[in-house]
Amino acid sequence: MKIRLVTQNIDWRAERLNGVTNADWERWAERELGADLMVLTEAQVRPPRAFTEAGWTVACRPGGFPGTSGWGTAIVARGVTIRQFTRVGQNEQYELDTHFPGTLVAADVWCRDTYFATIIGLHLRYRKNKAKKIISDPLMDIHSMLPDFKAILADRQAPLIIAGDLNVPLGDLPYEFQTLATGELALLDPFAQLNPMTFQQRDGGARSKLDYIYLSRSLARKVIVRRGGINDFPQALALSDHAPLLVEIDTDLTSSICDCGAVLQRPAGNYATKTRCPNCGQVAQYV
User: Fold this and answer.
1) Do residues 219 and 263 share a domain?
2) Burial class (CB in 10 A: 0-12, 13-18, 19+), 269
3) Is 38 found in the same domain as 21?
4) With the C-alpha atoms ordered 139, 75, 209, 135, is the resulting torsion angle positive or negative?
């Protein structure tokens, strides 16, 4: 089975004030993305009726970010099953998303009747105090939220997806994510070699990469499509100031991923156990 995963900041409130409707974005997403599973940031967390009537299920924090008129982060699915959870650990004693409420949404994902992955939707912001002075940055908040990520991984012990708007340009995974897990659960960036720009200021100014998808190694090795950013989705800027990232995961694929990050897919009919990476020359083992 192939699962198409997308993340996008859809800037719901600003774009609706600009005259872009929910239906406009939904038609575009249906045509251009064809997603099964999405992490949407700055989304309307009380989804429009047409969205749910179209078969989408939604996981979100009720009310979104406190004081934001109903927008926040939503995990939405169609074609796969999601079940939101807000507590983990023994007797579910550990409550998630208490550090900066509205920042994190988590759900379990099933593909048919098989557990597929744990997905975390993130939207990190430059938080301000009552005097409107910035009192944090996204990387500081990731560090503060590390107990949440560790608790989820320890509880689920399953392949992990972290996706959303981190609001900061990064050349590599945040250190907390680099060291979160090892082996098949270790997080990788499937766009590391592509570095797509996902955000452009509304005046047509500077572009940057603010949105990310991180996958456990066991999922990253099964990625068969990677598209993302303004170059791949230029029309997205008519609907938001962010462009989406998209990966397609073939759950039946046998492949490998080199230490350099290159995904090495075994061609049909090829029964070799090893291959040489065309990117760096190392010998990698198919799994």
Assistant:
1) no
2) exposed
3) yes
4) negative
* Domain encompassing residue 263: 254-287
Distances (CA, A) of 4 to 18, 37, 246: 29, 6, 7
Asked whether residue 283 falls in the same domain as residue 184, the answer is no
Query: One digit per residue, pLDDT tens: the chain, 287 residues?
Result: 999 999 999 887 666 667 888 788 888 999 999 999 999 999 888 777 777 888 899 999 988 888 777 889 999 999 899 999 999 999 999 999 999 999 999 999 999 889 999 999 999 988 877 788 887 889 999 999 999 999 999 999 999 999 999 999 998 999 999 999 999 999 999 999 899 999 998 777 889 999 999 999 999 999 999 999 999 999 999 899 999 999 999 998 766 566 666 666 665 545 455 677 777 877 765 54
- The verdict on 8 and 56 lying in the same domain is yes
Q: What is the CATH classification number for the domain harbouring 138?
A: 3.60.10.10
Both 148 and 180 in one domain: the answer is yes
- Based on the domain organization, do 248 and 260 belong to the same domain? no
Question: Are residues 224 and 270 located together in one domain of the fold?
Answer: no
CA-based Rg of the chain, rounded to a whole angstrom?
Answer: 19
User: Which region holds residue 67: left if phi is over 0, alpha if psi is between -120 and 50, else beta?
Assistant: left
